[in-house]
Amino acid sequence: MILKPWQVKQLAQGLPATPCNRSSSNSSSTAATTQNVDRRVVNDRGLSTSGDGNTVNASMSTTTVTNMLDGGAINAAFDLAKSSTQSSYKSTADALGFAGDALDSIVRAGSNGLELNLEQSRINAEGLLDGFGKLLDFARDTSATAKAVNETATQNVAAAYSGVQEISTGQRFLVAGALAIAGVVAVSKMKG
Fold this sequence. Notes:
By secondary structure, the chain is mainly alpha-helical. Helix content is 67%, strand content 7%. Strands 1-2-3 form a 3-stranded antiparallel sheet. Strand 2 and strand 3 form a beta hairpin.
């Protein structure tokens, strides 16, 4: 779209290219009127407002829109990120300095501390192996006891069963009950 010079001037002032009071009629009239137009611009934090009685113009910068929409949260987040980066850098530098000092102290102290640590580790390992040995011995003893109880119970049940074969039919029920009780006792011995 090609604009006339007066339209370009209007746009430069922040006004529309065609004012609202402009008509497209071809009739013209001549009148001598003096019109004082106040074209002052009010600008507050990026929001600009101007008017001339017929037209009111408002413009807003992108930064202002962003700050109005987020209440300055984005700028605050950037400030926080900047300060935390600076703080992290300082903390890292301090930690590296501390680590360097600690390393120097270890080197100066010599291998005496390392030898003490190795000796203590050896003592701890011996104690651990001794404890594992005792635990294995206990497990073997428990297993042997359970095996002996199981063999005894099996022998008792077999002896009672062979006796049942020889007893008459009426007494088999009592013998079966005794076998069940002997089995329960043997199982409880194994658990206890």
